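(Fold this chain)
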Amino acid sequence: MSQDIEARLDRLFQAFRQWSIAWGVSRLPRDATVEFDDRIESALGLCEVRAGRIVLNAVLLRPENEGLLHETLCHEAAHLVVYLRYGSGVEEHGEEWRATLRRAGFRPRAVIPESEVGRGERSRRGRPGRIGASRGPGASGTVRPP
């Protein structure tokens, strides 16, 4: 792994620890699994709340996507926090989730414009970059670390 990616991941997980403290679930970064998958086609991130597993699209590892990487991890981690606090009986992007994202300093949004995702040579024909897709168990495919 390049030093640049390692430095970005260090910043990401430092932010994750800070959000978790602000949310009152300081163990979340130790208890959750965060992985990257370069085969995710329809989302920037997926969360399997029952498994405590977050899968992020590997395109987020591109240097120009660092801010979006933070936003996407926070988005997915907020789903875990809401599940831990309220169970599965709340809306996916409901007020509890929005308040959790705001507490971390992000504007709650479920879909971002494709124009905000740096993809380099690889284009996805203008499809929007969804943050978050299925929340159920088994929602993502095979994961390969960066």
Observations:
- The beta strands are 33-37, 45-48, 53-57, 111-112, 129-130.
- Helices lie at 3-23, 28-31, 66-86, 95-103.
- Residues 122-130, 132-146 have pLDDT under 50 and may be disordered.
- Residues 12 and 70 are 6 Å apart (CA to CA).
